[in-house]
Amino acid sequence: MDGFDDPRLTAFGLLTEVYSGVSEHLHATYAEEGLSEVDFGTLIRLARSPGQSLRMGDLAAQTSLSTSGITRVVDRLEREGLVERHACASDRRASYAVLSEAGKERLERLLPQHVKDIETYFTGLLTPDRLEEFLNTLRIIRGVVRPCATAGADEVAQLG
Fold it and tell me: CB-based burial of residue 137 (10 Å sphere; 0-12 exposed, 13-18 middle, 19+ buried)?
């Protein structure tokens, strides 16, 4: 076997192809609601967080954006009325991004089609056992490559 037939290369190549292919199908649904993939990722992170809010730094860590990058995204979403900022009572330097009622309504309109797309192009292609194994595998990998992916979730849960 030469180095080009390495199963590690195959695994990574398949992962990127699957991600790109599924993302292409999802983009149309986001666009129908006037959102980008980054906008949706930010809103769904907030929606799925305790209190539907996260510290800005934790939101940046969870979305893989820089602090200034997430600030720009939240600024835009705030101008659209989809997100609000709340000051942190214990740290004047920090603020929370909070999903607004309008943001929640926008997500609720988008979610049925989004979930249908995920089912059609991703999870519905796996048996329940395979899906559970796949989710566990992804969590193992995420824990190594993105240890901050759940940053702030426990802290917010304790505050709420």
Answer: exposed
